[in-house]
Amino acid sequence: MNNRALKSMKWIFEIVLIIALSFMYYLNKPINSPKVIYIPKGSINKIISHLQSKNYNVSKLDSLILRVIGSPQSGWIQIGTLSSSRADFLYKLVTAKAALQNITLIPGETTYIFLNQLANNLGLDRELLQEEYDKQFKHKEGALVPNTYKIPIGITEQELIKILRSESTSAMKKLSYKIFGTYNENKWFHFVTLASIIQKESANIQEMPIVSSVIHNRLKKKMRLQMDGTLNYGKYSHVKVTPKRIKEDDTSYNTYKNKGLPSSPVCNVSFDAIRAAIFPAQTDYLYFMKSKNGTHDFSCNYSTHLSNIKRATKRNK
């Protein structure tokens, strides 16, 4: 009996040892992931399913382990390395949080300048950001919603552009449904293009519907818009428009040479500018000129506009 008991105990010990060693081996197997990953809110099973959908090597057993060590935190998680042990990976799901940095896209800024800002502030590759933007966005300009974005430090270029696309598209659709009851992309971006000119030309939010009325009125009369703001596109966002630029620029953004709106938005726009584009003030104005206090003097006829120009020119001499 004693020998049998000893053999049984030895057999049980060996089984336990094998299980323990297998479990240790399992916990030490590497999991490859980005340095920063996103964890959605929900149950542990939902989180594991999400990770599996992202091709992370996790399993049902990991659900059981997480139930013992704790529930994963939702949001962005700082993993820190591209490859970590399963034990370290699961522990960080429960304990870690990614450091966030605020990045602000101001109304009227171009995507070109904003991508430069993202690359400089977050230490990302500017060319990869552009490549990802071109892959994920149909519109080369005006597709981002000006806002302050909380960006996880360590995020990849692909994931960053994905965040910007998701948040911007969602916000635009929400406003479109509020105004029109539907979302038609072509119609929406027609107004975004119009709004981008309003954004560049207006001195303040209060002026936007009036500037919008000038644009609408000139378009109805098939007049060229002849607005400097349309030439502040892309890398020229903060470059002064000169007669030389007007003469040499052959893009659709040059509203001195071309009738109608540019083929795409000039910049990223605020929702105030979009509302102004959709709901212009009811005026007969066709011209405007910057006044002494920095706002604009609006006029219905060219002679009054010339007087406003003369006043401004005289004041600046």
Spatial arrangement of strands, main beta sheet: 1-4
Radius of gyration over C-alpha positions, nearest whole angstrom = 29 Å
What portion of the residues fall into strands of 2 or more residues? 5-15%
* Low confidence ranges: none
| Element order: H for helix, E for strand | HEEHHEEHEHHEHHHHHEEH
Assign the structural class, choosing from mainly alpha, mainly beta, alpha/beta, alpha+beta, or little secondary structure. mainly alpha
Percent range of helical residues: 40-55%
Model description:
This protein has 317 residues and is mainly alpha-helical. It has helices at residues 2-28, 44-53, 60-69, 86-95, 111-122, 126-136, 157-180, 185-201, 208-220, 243-248, 271-278, 302-316; strands at 30-32, 36-39, 75-78, 83-85, 100-104, 148-152, 287-290, 296-299. The strands form four sheets. It has a two-stranded antiparallel sheet. It is elongated and about 115 Å long.
Brief description of this entry?
With 317 residues, the chain is mainly alpha-helical.
Please give the structural blueprint.
Blueprint: H1 2-28, E1 30-32, E2 36-39, H2 44-53, H3 60-69, E3 75-78, E4 83-85, H4 86-95, E5 100-104, H5 111-122, H6 126-136, E6 148-152, H7 157-180, H8 185-201, H9 208-220, H10 243-248, H11 271-278, E7 287-290, E8 296-299, H12 302-316
Antiparallel strand pairs: 1-4, 2-3, 5-6, 7-8
Helix pairs in contact: 6-7, 8-9, 8-11, 9-11
